Amino acid sequence: QAAWCELPSRVLLVLTSQRGVQVRPGGDWGVPRGVGPSPWVTQTCSLPAHSVFARGIAAAGGRFICVGTSSGAVLVFDIPPKGTNVTLSEVLEQHRDPITDIAAEQGQAPDGAGDLVTADDSGTLCLWSTEEEFTLLGKIPGSGSTCSSVTLWNGIVAAGYGNGQIRLWEAGSGRIRAQVSAHARWIYALDLAPLTGKLLSGAEDSFVHVWKLSRNPDTDDIEIQHCHAECVTDTQVCGARFCDPTGDTFAVTGYDLSEILCY
Amino acid sequence: MSARTLPLLFLNLGGEMLYILDQRLRAQSIPGEKARKDEWTDVDRKRVMNDIISTMFNKKFMEELFKPQDLYSKKALRTVYDRLAHASIMRLNQASMDKLYDLMTMAFKYQVLLCPRPRDILLVTFNHLDAIKDFISDSPGILNQVDETFRQLIETYNCLSDGEFQLIRQTLLIFFQDMHIRVSIFLKDKVQNSNGRFVLPISGPVPWGTEVPGLIRIFNHKGVEVKRAEFTTAGNYVTPQREGSFELYGDRVLKLGTNMYSVTRPVETHMSGSSKNPASQAKENIVPNPLAKEELNFLARLLGGLDIQKPAGGETGFRLNLFTSDEEEEHAAQTRPEELSYKVINIEATQEPGRRAELSRILGELEVAEPRPGSAEKGEDLLALMDEL
Fold first, then answer.
1. In 3-state terms, what secondary structure has residue B217?
2. Where do the WD repeats start and stop (chain A) (predicted)?
3. What are phi and psi of A69, to 5 degrees?
4. From the CA of A72, how many Å to the nearest CA of chain B?
5. Closest CA to A72 of A122, A14, A111
6. b/e burial code for range A197-214 (CB count within 10 A of at least 16 → b)
7. What is the interface pTM, i.e. ipTM, of the complex?
8. Is the Cβ pair B116, A100 closer than 8 Å?
9. Mean of pLDDT values over B138-147
10. Burial (0-12, 13-18, 19+ Cβ within 10 Å), A99
11. Which chain A residues are within 8 Å of B198, Cβ to Cβ?
12. Best residue in B218, B227, B230 for a mutation probing chain A (most A CBs within 10 Å)
């Protein structure tokens, strides 16, 4: 897995694999460096002994990067504003199944709602506050289906599941607020456009859907509407991401596809 | 990656291989009394199937296979099937073996890709095993071996979560990535496009446990449903009727993994340099020592455990052609695109003298004489073999 993590001080590229976790500074890609000592300074951390792979990456709390592992542990790395001294600050051990995805709050969290959500193979979701230290605020138990991807926006957890469902949960109370029979196959990717609340879902059924999340601050009504469906013929969609924070464009990748499709 | 993928890969590919061999043997067989000495009969066919299946389900072999481990490299796996295909009196030329392997891999790739749920890969495996049991239904000894493996599959896999199955599925899909060999029977049935990619239908039953897409349900903060909405898409899905059985016996419901060949449908492939990224394939070919040390050792142990039958004196070794004529086979061998050639491993001995001796001994026992190109008689291969002894 690979993810760009935007921290206030710097942007980092985080890579996970069976070997461990690599954190690289986001550099100036356009400048040719030529042959010579590598301009990249990378830190590689190996996984705890009982983990087999790392999966799930998110920036949290302004100075941390969280990475999930196959043992269910979430590694929290402390990133200094400058330099390469990345240290493992904490290990969160609330999940008993392999972590599938981690997401940080991309909008404005209501009070008590937490700003980080972690998901695992059993469908269990954990909500965390990252203020002083990482504190578990609540747990939403799974109900038989793997939660494959998750996003957090304005206190709404949007979770995609292996059975094709999308569910919206209220982060503060842990209550379910919406259930969508969204896809006919395993949902691989969810992405959110924070300026508009648009949600993108991509699945093995070849479909990509665009939805609109909304939360009424007065009535506290949470809604999801379907905006658009796109079928990527004969392709199992593996990745889907908005290309801008308003969600006007998005990109899609698929199995056996060497191209990135932009819509 | 999942360390539990190899048994599923091996058994399903083996199953496909048996379907194809059975079809070709039937297509080329002559009723017993009328057959000349160099022609296939039903008795020969049954014998070949029995030999191969019995080798495949060898107890020690299965024990090794089920140990948690990474997948073999493509070359190592190909070598295992080479040996397996030659576990009886049957011989295959390089071209026929290449074609057999192409068909096996594309068929299983298709099955993995189209599995509705990740866990349905187990149903596909069970379909193959059910059919294998049918092939050897009158050999209780071998039947027992297969049932043992069946039970081990159930024990190992039935308890795995969806997430773990998805990881297995992803491991398999990565193994099959960028393979786009066109298969005639797939093209005819419109399950494969002319560019080699499989057709993914957006209609039909949804997987068991999934709802037909279209419904949005909204709940208030007390958990009470307050609104329903619907959306439509181009898809045309329906609810499934029932779930397949994961028991030793039962209706699997899923058709993937059942025998799609019959005597009247010839198995053909179109050779096309269909990889859009030949660079990635080329990289694999230039690795000087294709087997890592661990793989080498394991492979040697496996091969050492295979009870290879050599044609004894008086019996004939038979050659099977996967093409419709020898000329076609010869032509296929000469025109196979470079990037699609399976460089079958010549197992190099390792540095350690002890290992080298052991490996040489194993290899010596397995040595099979390559049939002379163009030879059409079954018996000739046996003579060639005897000449070299």
1. strand
2. 180-221
3. -130, 170
4. 13
5. A122
6. bbbbbbbbbbbbbbbbbe
7. 0.90
8. no
9. 93
10. buried
11. 234
12. B218
> pTM of the full predicted structure?
0.83
Question: Which residues of B are less than 8 Å from A229 in CB distance?
Answer: 231, 233-234
Which chain B positions have a beta carbon within 8 Å of A173's beta carbon? 221
Closest CA to B19 of B256, B294, B313, B359: B256
Q: Report whether pLDDT(B124) > 60.
A: yes
When pLDDT is averaged across residues A165-180 and rounded to a whole number, the result is 95
Residue corresponding to tokens 């010596």: B364
Residue B292, pLDDT > 80, answer no
Q: Which of B166, B213, B234 sits opposite A181 (nearest CB)?
A: B213
Which pLDDT does position A196 carry in this prediction?
A: 96
Higher pLDDT, B352 or A106: A106
Amino acid at B132: I
DSSP 3-state percent helix, strand, coil across chain A (nearest 5): 0, 50, 50
- What ranges do the domains of chain B cover? 5-202+245-263+293-340
Contact B218 A178 (CB under 8 A): yes
Note whether B212 contacts A225, CB cutoff 8 Å: no
For residues A103 and A199, give the distance between their C-alpha atoms in angstroms, rounded to a whole number.
Answer: 14
Chain B residues with beta carbon closer than 8 angstroms to that of A163:
207, 209-211
Q: Could you give all domains of chain A from N- to C-terminal order, each with its CATH number?
A: 2-24+49-262 (2.130.10.10)
- Contact between A182 and A204 under an 8 Å Cβ cutoff? The reply is no
Residue B357 has pLDDT above 70, yes or no: no
- Tell me whether residues A121 and B177 touch, CB distance under 8 A: no
Q: Do A121 and B215 touch (CB under 8 A)?
A: no
